[in-house]
Amino acid sequence: MAKNIQNERLARYLEAEKAVLMGQSYTIGNRTLTRANLTSIRNAIDDLIAGGATIDGYEAKPAGAARRVIMMD
């Protein structure tokens, strides 16, 4: 359950990052305003990934994970 919540939050933060990168800033006169802070979004994404969140149900294997393959005729 908690893993699903993390994955959902990661997906939403990735959507927010995309929106910011596509132009969340605007200018009125000589002032430029930004609706969202890309740095805080990136930090949240990094924290979620470090906490084990994954995208589309893909779970990264831990470093050094090994598999055993048994060949059968």
Write structural notes for this entry.
The chain is mainly alpha-helical and 73 residues long. The protein has a domain at 2-50. 45% of the residues lie in helices and 11% in strands. The chain contains two helices and two strands, in the order H-E-E-H. It has a two-stranded antiparallel ribbon with strand order 1-2. The radius of gyration is 19 Å and the shape is elongated.
Strand order of the largest sheet: 1-2
Structural class: mainly alpha
- Globally, the shape reads elongated
Order of helices and strands: HEEH
**Rounded to an integer, what's the Rg over CA atoms?**
19 Å
Range of strand content: 5-15%
Please report the total strand number as a whole number. 2
Low-confidence stretches: none
Helix content: 40-55%
Quick description:
The protein is mainly α.
SSE layout:
Elements: H1 2-21, E1 25-28, E2 31-34, H2 38-50
Antiparallel strand pairs: 1-2
Descriptive labels:
73 residues, mainly alpha, 2 helices, 45% helix, elongated
